[in-house]
């Protein structure tokens, strides 16, 4: 006899699970992985141990996640939605958006890197809708001084911030001054 739950059979995908393929190369009717989804007696649920640490009343889509911190120091997780930046320090969520953030579309993914300058670790944020913004771990994100471009992606190389596809110009690269963000 059922124990008070309505059992609904879940139809397995006809192609099964294909963990050997690139996620973009999955044929129709296949799953990438089923390791974190358990089915028992026709009822599906997430694997035990995964919990929701926090919720934010924001209906906008997440377009990036970054981390400010190192192995040796406590860090903050930054969640960027299309119009807001949130910081989570392990216990509380705070809005750290600051002024001047342009609303992004869902295909303008946010990228994060850490850049150290003058003893301060900056978490830098960029996407195609916004120029480089910085956060020191307290207060709000602020526009980086000077006239940095917006861009599709960026990295740190040789003490410089290197921006790829700056201002929507494909096949272009811009970089900052030495040890300057």
Please describe the biggest sheet, giving its number of strands, its sense, and whether it closes into a barrel: 4 strands, antiparallel
Return the average pLDDT rounded to an integer. 78
Structural class: mainly beta
The string of secondary-structure elements, in order, is: EEEEEEEEEEEEE
Helical content band: under 10%
Low-confidence stretches at least 5 residues in length (pLDDT < 50)? none
Number-wise, the strands total: 13
Any idea what the radius of gyration is?
21 Å
Indicate the overall shape.
globular
Proportion of residues in β-strands: 35-45%
First and last CA, distance: 66 Å
Strand order, main sheet: write it out. 3-4-5-6
Helix count from the secondary structure assignment: 0
Describe this structure in words.
The protein is mainly beta. Helices cover 0% and strands 35% of the residues. The protein has a four-stranded antiparallel beta sheet with strand order 3-4-5-6, with no helix packed on it. A four-stranded antiparallel beta sheet has the order 7-8-9-10, with no helix packed on it. It is globular and about 60 Å long. It starts with 36 loop residues before the first strand and ends in a 6-residue tail after the last strand.
In short, what is this structure?
The chain is mainly β. Helices cover 0% and strands 35% of the residues.
Task: List the SSEs and their pairings.
Elements lengths: L36 E4 L2 E4 L15 E7 L7 E6 L3 E4 L4 E3 L15 E7 L2 E8 L2 E6 L6 E2 L9 E5 L2 E5 L8 E3 L6
Antiparallel strand pairs: 1-2, 3-4, 4-5, 5-6, 7-8, 8-9, 9-10, 11-12, 12-13
């Amino acid at each position: 006899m059922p124990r008070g739950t309505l059992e609904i059979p879940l139809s397995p995908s006809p192609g099964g699970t294909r963990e050997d393929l690139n996620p973009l190369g999955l044929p129709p009717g296949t799953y990438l992985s089923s390791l974190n989804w358990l089915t028992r007696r026709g009822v599906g649920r997430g694997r035990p141990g995964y919990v929701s640490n926090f919720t934010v009343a924001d209906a906008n889509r997440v377009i990036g996640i970054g981390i400010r911190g190192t192995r040796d120091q406590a860090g903050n997780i930054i969640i960027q939605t299309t119009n807001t930046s949130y910081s989570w320090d392990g216990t509380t969520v705070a809005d750290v958006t600051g002024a001047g953030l342009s609303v992004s579309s869902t295909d303008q993914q946010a990228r994060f890197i850490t850049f150290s300058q003058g003893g301060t670790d900056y978490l830098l944020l960029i996407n195609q809708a916004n120029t480089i913004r910085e956060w020191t771990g307290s207060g709000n994100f602020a526009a980086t001084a000077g006239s940095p471009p917006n861009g599709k992606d960026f990295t740190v190389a040789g003490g410089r911030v290197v921006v790829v596809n700056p201002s929507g110009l494909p096949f272009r690269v811009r970089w900052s001054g030495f040890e300057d963000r």
